[in-house]
Amino acid sequence: MRMNLSVCTISFRHQLIALSDIATWAQQHGFAGIELWGAHAINLEPEDQFDAAWLGSLGLEVPMISDYLPLEGSEVRALRHLERLCRLANRWEAPKLRTFAGNRGSAVVSTEERKAWVARLRNLTSLAAAHGVQLVVETHPNTLADTLASTRQLLEEVDHPAMGINFDVLHLWEAGDDPLESLRVLAPRVCHFHLKNIDKRENLGVFAPANVYAAAGSRDGMVPLLEGAFDYRTFLQSLGSMGLLDASLEWFGPDVKNVLARDCRAITSLTGDLQAGMLAADACHQSLAV
Predict the structure, then answer these.
(1) Domain with 247 in it: what CATH number?
(2) pLDDT at position 273
(3) Could you tell me the residue range of the domain that residue 14 belongs to?
(4) Mean pLDDT, rounded, for 200-205
């Protein structure tokens, strides 16, 4: 197993730093891509010099644009916003567009609301597919993809081949699901991973959007990936047979560059060791077969 690691521009949401500087830094520290926050992609729209060709000249790509498509209110407005995002995805040659499945948890959404949200998601997915973009729903609290059971049900209800899953490991663990079992069930639709960690389960509320997006919000409990309560070493070691995977390091805390660079090195080293071990085992099996 190897990982195409991306840095998220949302990590720099409260800093005055240009995309060109982020890209140069990402290239220098071993990242393969940049996950563009939708707000940043929109704000860059008038800047013609920034596109897939420019980023490709640095050896980088945009694997995904991350935004939030409303499942309530005007569907015309939601579809219009999606069309704009799809045009931006095409500009950046990003194959995936991330969204959330609503803004309330599966346990509190009524049957009729769920039907309406599913219908909206199906329409959004169809439009994205028409633009050559895969719509990717993130496993996240307070959405219809907040547990393994509800996420699986959602995929069956939407029933569209262009809908994928952005597998947020920590949030499924937060829901009480086993991430490895969840991945086994959802694997055919998983096309991206979000990786982050917390020092202890009691602090998971720090990732609530209202807190994360606030410049003065708490960052208590956010820790580097391999130093938290969730055991990423075991999780990553269990992905040995999955080949090349797209993943983004989702860091919302301080000291952004240093933490991301350390995490990138740590994961690259860990997955590199796994890859070397698998190759050595294959070579051993081949020699014994001779």
Answers:
(1) 3.20.20.150
(2) 56
(3) 2-289
(4) 96
